[in-house]
Amino acid sequence: MKKEKRNPWSWIPSLYFAEGLPYVIVMTVSVIMYKKLEISNTDIALYTSWLYLPWVIKPIWSPIVDNLKTKRFWIISMQLVVGASLAGVAFTLNLNSFFQYSLAFLWLMAFTSATHDIAADGFYMLGLSKYDQAFFVGIRNTFYRFAMLAGQGPLIILAGHMEQIAEKTSWAWSITFFIFAAIFTAFCFYHFFILPHPKTDVKRETKSFKQLMDDFLETFTSFFKKEGIGVALIFLLVFRLGEAQLVKMASPFLLDKGDVGGLSLTTSNIGFIYGTAGVIALTLGGIIGGIVVSRNGIKKWLWPMVFAMNLPNLVYVFLAFTQPDDLGIITASVVIEQFGYGFGFTAYVMYMLYISQGKYQTAHYALCTGFMALGMMLPGMVSGWLQELVGYKLFFVWVMVCTIPGFIIVNFLRIDPKFGTKEKTE
Predict the structure, then answer these.
(1) Euclidean distance between the first and final Cα of the chain, in Å?
(2) Taking the CB of residue 151, how many other CB atoms lie within 10 A of it?
(3) For residue 423, how many C-alpha atoms fall within 13 Å in the half-sphere facing its CB?
(4) How many helices (H) and strands (E) does the chain have?
(5) Among candidate residues 210, 180, 68, the one with its CA nearest the CA of residue 113
(6) Residue range 139-150, pLDDT digits in tens
(7) Based on the structure, what is the number of domains in the chain?
(8) Which phi and psi angles does 418 have, rounded to 5°?
């Protein structure tokens, strides 16, 4: 029998790990792979940067996901295509024109993964009560982050081992991507049996092209007609203005030599700081954030989370000006920043859920994530140039200055005090 409800712990962690994994493969693993396969840095930067585009513009086709079939159908279908795309990359790496062919499959994976994101986020809202949405928001963010960390750690280590075993580098990466494909296909079959069948996740009626276009326009216009949408969009664009620049320069700062203002850490040091201590702090922050919001509502915890998101960035000002060589001090600083990020980001996600409520909540949430991506992409694009212009010390001071707009715009947000609490939904 099709179960309308299942224990959220049985599917939320795996669903959001599966949501993050293709992204990190496309954006991080592919860069390392092409470098090892002797593609020029110019081509790597140009073509892999374009792969980010589907996540930025995914709101354009989100109404299609919202109006055709079920969210569950889209999740299972897109996971199957991602698995096939990974296998496609593996098959093409030993061909003469492997760069063009593998890029085509990575493009397919990027588009498919962005579509999967829309369906998964919509399913999250359909499959859970408002109370459970608040409780699990930290969990889902944490497992998405786990996928990011897995892609930057164990998956690269796996490829390195394959390079030592295989005779050719291309064969090593081909085998690695076949393993990726097998892992993701396993996710697809697991979710086929485990995902619940919520009553609200129903099949849409077959519609003509004109009807789809009318729905498309109605979905978009209804979003921009929401009360207070102007303030909401400014919040989505500026709340992470400082972090968007910090996240691009944090690792280079830790790795750079002392004579240019860095901390001269090794790659192994970075792996320990972010992959062990950092991920524990991030996990705790996300989980605690979800718990407190589910008990007291987002409005009560909004300001503490705003401070948690922004003030811990001061640790990088401290590190840049003192340049400590004690790994314990550096690790503790990153732990503080990561815990604050995990805790504070809960407010950002909950606010996106809040303003997405209504008839087209899946498409409207996708629009929110599109603005979120834009708010991270544009500042990140200039962060490297700015850092080289002023140096690490003044750059991190600038990051703190960029947190000010977020503190200002929060004063203008209007949020139901009970949103996300058990009292609100039950």
Answers:
(1) 27
(2) 22
(3) 9
(4) 21, 0
(5) 180
(6) 887 788 788 777
(7) 2
(8) -95, 0
pLDDT, tens digit (0-9, with 9 covering 90-100), for 262-299: 888 764 566 667 656 777 787 788 888 888 887 877 78
Q: Is 304 in the same domain as 356?
A: yes
Residues 299 and 357 in one domain: yes
Residue 180's alpha-carbon distances to 21, 25, 120, 185, in angstroms, are 9, 9, 20, 9
425: pLDDT confidence band, cut at 50, 70 and 90? very low
Are 282 and 149 within 8 A, CB to CB? no
Q: Are residues 160 and 256 in the same domain?
A: no
The confidence band for 426, taking pLDDT boundaries of 50, 70 and 90, is very low
CATH no. for residue 255?
A: 1.20.1250.20
**Contact call for residues 296 and 143 (beta carbons, < 8 A):** no
- Identify which of 289, 320, 291, 321 has the alpha carbon closest to the alpha carbon of residue 305: 289
- What's the CA gap between 258 and 32, in Å, rounded? 26
Q: 375 with 303, same domain?
A: yes
Give me the pLDDT at residue 316, please.
92
Cα–Cα distance for residue pair 239/307, rounded to 1 Å: 11
Distances (CA, A) of 109 to 36, 42, 55, 139, 400: 21, 22, 11, 25, 36
Alpha-carbon span 148 to 278, nearest angstrom: 13
Cα distances (angstroms) measured from residue 338 to each of 79, 256, 335, 369: 30, 21, 5, 21
Q: At which residue do the structure tokens 């490829």 appear? A: 159
Tokens representing residue 261 in the block = 């203002």
Q: Closest by alpha carbon to 82, among 186, 196, 195? A: 186
> Can you tell me the distance from the alpha carbon of 3 to that of 26, in angstroms, rounded to the nearest whole number?
34
H helical segments located in 195-224? 209-224
Instruction: Determine the structural domain holding residue 344 and report its residue range.
Output: 227-416
- What is 74-124 written as a DSSP string? HHHHHHHHHHHHHHHHHHHTTSTTHHHHHHHHHHHHHHHHHHHHHHHHHHH
Residue 221 inside a domain? The answer is no
**63 and 164 together in one domain:** yes
Torsion of CA 23, 25, 31, 35, to 10 degrees: -170
pTM of the complete model: 0.67
Distance CA 162, CA 145 (A): 25
**Could you tell me the two tokens for 383?**
């962060």
408 contacts 87 by C-beta, under 8 angstroms: no
* 57 lies in the same domain as 129: yes
pLDDT above 70 covers a percentage of the chain that reads: 85
What is the rounded CA–CA span in Å between residue 362 and residue 120?
Answer: 9
